[in-house]
TrEMBL record, chain A:
It comes from Sapayoa aenigma (broad-billed sapayoa). InterPro entries: G_SEPTIN_dom (IPR030379), P-loop_NTPase (IPR027417), Septin (IPR016491), Septin2 (IPR008113). SUPFAM superfamilies: P-loop containing nucleoside triphosphate hydrolases. Its main location: membrane. This is SEPT2 protein. Gene3D superfamilies: P-loop containing nucleotide triphosphate hydrolases. One of its GO terms (molecular function) is GTP binding. Belongs to the TRAFAC class TrmE-Era-EngA-EngB-Septin-like GTPase superfamily. Septin GTPase family. Transmembrane segments: none annotated. One of its GO terms (biological process) is cell division.
From TrEMBL, chain B:
It comes from Sapayoa aenigma. This is Neuronal-specific septin-3. Keywords: Cytoplasm, GTP-binding, Nucleotide-binding. GO terms for molecular function: GTP binding. Belongs to the TRAFAC class TrmE-Era-EngA-EngB-Septin-like GTPase superfamily. Septin GTPase family. GO terms for cellular component: cytoplasm. Residues 58-331 form the Septin-type G domain. It is found in: Cytoplasm.
Length: 305, 350
């Protein structure tokens, strides 16, 4: 048969065809089904990971939390704990799974602590690959990790050896977003210095963190640049509501003042949340098109075909 | 779509957040968290906008096939549907041209744009269908073409290093043109639709509907619907794929009342009541193509393009293609057919 495919635009005769409505058709189904997103949080104990997650999604994901003492921690290996919550906003349903990694960095010898994490990520890829290759593909569940917040301690001078090793091991498997935790322990100057240090070390070690895609023509170029320039985000989280100027806000009350979580002058929390929420789709896409495809082609090559 | 300000959603939101039983991940899960309060706005609904931007950027493919005897106005109709010259009309077979001995498959692609949305439209014509004296099995080349596109897609999908966006040449929609005899379907119509409704979405249309009066049209449509039902022909939208009550109600109405659409096509414009309209001029009046009291073209257009275009693609991908794929896997012993794409070797081990 003959096939001639060429691109050219025909000027429409006075007439509206109506397929400009197409994006709405596409999303009607998605809105009905709802969206899924899996976020992993990694970092040493006590860096405020859980508090930050609760602040980000205005929820209490860990209601009955038990914090083990040091002696118990000696015995512990890294656990993987996944919690799922359904959030609905303006008719849009999101099923958010937060994968926590308690025990990371706790052991005296932390050499193997990210193996469990790598295994978890690979297992999700493996399951997806298996489902995708199967006969019945109608209800594939996507449990793959779309984004990993890596918590950097504000107490050091930059990245620790464990941080470097972890990121090097995982940057080919998941989108890494580095976050400086408990940023309220730093002055603004100290913060800037630490950020620069961290970025230098990241580039020195060839670590590939998640890159924000370029702004679209109608997006705020400046805002995007500002967001990019703030990475790694220095954040503060809080489970407490404090009254400031008649409003109840999330914050931390010190004798010398109140740190407001959602105040952009106090920390990058809002930037982090905005970045995450406005890039959920892109994070999923990069996971699918880059990390998953890499896993898949490695895997298929290994099974020797 | 939502109703009401964000604040009042708190109460409503809580009733939505009943944790559904969900397949457990391989590792132990904590009990499902329930939102205790949603003070403030996170911005999750922006994901809709993100998706729409992405789809607008990547654009849409749509592949539509037209099947029917020569002269039933297939090309004209497609041109009218997309308001562009996307199909070359054949003005009958010249003496020098031979009627093709078998059905030919001609696929021509165009990029059309509207409201910032780009569509790569491919029209697949099937000249020669039903034109022979002996038309036995004339649907076979068509079925073969359709399956070849599934095969192409499958091959790319199982590739080790596969493309980010697999080019989609699969036929999303097949318009089958019924001759407006006013009597009933012809045996060829039944045979074609019986065979092909299993592999592709078929939308039957009654061509050149301006040869029938309103009463004749209504009767003919009823008779055709009955015949299709009696012969177990599932045309699009297929009953078994209605996903929920909303779909079912909408589609039932279309299946039982509107289809098959009795259409008239035209690419000529005339002035009627001060407006430019597409139509056919006769001594006894102008037939306005987009006038619902004259013919059902507008219904077909809205159905295919404005409401069900995405669904046509989804049914093709999720149902017809999956059926093909499952059969291929079963034939291959349950294993996905693997290819290592090398320069020399474009053959696969399928």
């Amino acid at each position: 048969y003959t096939q001639a495919v060429f691109s050219c635009q025909f000027s429409d005769s006075a007439g509206y065809v109506g397929f400009a409505n197409l994006p709405n058709q596409v999303h009607r189904k998605s809105v009905k089904k709802g969206f899924e997103f899996t976020l992993m949080v990694v970092g040493e104990s006590g860096l405020g990971k859980s508090t930050l997650i609760n602040s980000l999604f205005l929820t209490d994901l860990y209601p009955e939390r038990y914090i083990p003492g040091a002696a118990e921690k000696i015995e512990r290996t890294v656990q993987i704990e996944a919690s799922t919550v359904e959030i609905e906003e303006r008719g849009v349903k999101l099923r958010l799974t937060v994968v926590d990694t308690p025990g990371y960095g706790d052991a005296i010898n932390s050499q193997d602590c990210f193996k469990t994490i790598i295994q978890y990520i690979d297992n999700q890829f493996e399951r997806y690959l298996h489902d995708e290759s199967g006969l019945n593909r109608r209800h594939i569940i996507d449990n793959r990790v779309h984004c990993c917040f890596y918590f950097i301690s504000p107490f050091g001078h930059g990245l620790k050896p464990l941080d470097v090793e972890f990121m090097k091991a995982l940057h080919g498997k998941v989108n890494i977003v580095p976050v400086i935790a408990k940023a309220d322990t730093l002055t603004l100057k100290e913060r800037e210095r630490l950020k620069r240090r961290v970025l230098d070390e990241i580039s020195e070690h060839g670590i590939r963190i998640y890159q924000l895609p370029d702004a679209d023509s109608d997006e705020d170029e400046e805002f995007k640049e500002q967001t990019r320039a703030s990475i790694p985000f220095a954040v503060i989280g809080s489970n407490q509501l404090i009254e400031v100027k008649g409003k109840k806000i999330r914050g931390r009350l010190y004798p010398w003042g109140v740190v407001e979580v959602e105040n952009p002058e106090h920390n990058d929390f809002l930037k982090l949340r905005t970045m995450l929420v406005t890039h959920m789709q892109d994070l999923q896409e990069v996971t699918q098109d880059l990390h998953y495809e890499n896993f898949r082609s490695e895997r298929l090559k290994r099974t020797g075909k | 779509s939502c109703a009401g300000p964000v604040e009042s959603k708190t109460e409503a939101a809580m009733s939505e957040l009943v944790p559904e039983p969900r397949q457990k991940p391989v590792v132990p899960t904590k009990p499902m968290g329930i939102n205790t309060s949603l003070l403030g706005y996170i911005g999750i609904d922006t994901i809709i906008e993100q998706m729409r931007k992405k789809t607008m950027k990547t654009g849409f493919d749509f592949n539509i096939m037209v099947v029917g005897q020569s002269g039933l106005g297939k090309s004209t109709l497609v041109n009218t549907l997309f308001k562009s010259q996307v199909s070359r009309k054949s003005s009958g077979w010249n003496r020098e041209e031979k009627i093709p001995k078998t059905v030919e498959i001609k696929a021509i692609g165009h990029v059309i744009e509207e409201g910032g949305v780009k569509m790569k439209l491919t029209v697949i014509d099937t000249p020669g269908f039903g034109d022979q004296i002996n038309n036995e099995n004339c649907w076979e080349p068509i079925e073969k073409y359709i399956n070849e596109q599934y095969e192409k897609f499958l091959k790319e999908e199982v590739n080790i290093a596969r493309k980010k966006r697999i080019p989609d040449t699969r036929v999303h929609c097949c318009l089958y043109f019924i001759s407006p005899t006013g009597h009933s379907l012809r045996p060829l119509d039944l045979e074609f639709m019986k065979h092909l409704s299993k592999v592709v979405n078929i939308i039957p249309v009654i061509a050149k509907a301006d040869t029938m009066t309103l009463e004749e049209k209504t009767e003919f449509k009823q008779r055709v619907r009955k015949e299709l039902e009696v012969n177990g022909i599932e045309f699009y939208p297929q009953k078994e794929f209605d996903e929920d009550l909303e779909d079912k109600t909408e589609n039932d109405k279309i299946r039982q009342e509107s289809m098959p659409f009795a259409v008239v096509g035209s690419d000529k414009e005339y002035q009627v009541n001060g407006k430019r309209v597409l139509g056919r001029k006769t001594p006894w009046g102008i037939i306005e193509v987009e006038n619902l009291t004259h013919c059902e073209f507008a219904l077909l257009r809205d159905f295919v393009i404005r409401t069900h275009l995405q669904d046509l693609k989804e049914v093709t991908h999720n149902i017809h293609y999956e059926t093909y794929r499952a059969k291929r896997l079963n034939d291959n012993g349950g294993l996905p057919p693997m290819t290592v794409e090398t320069e020399e070797n474009h053959e696969s081990n399928l």
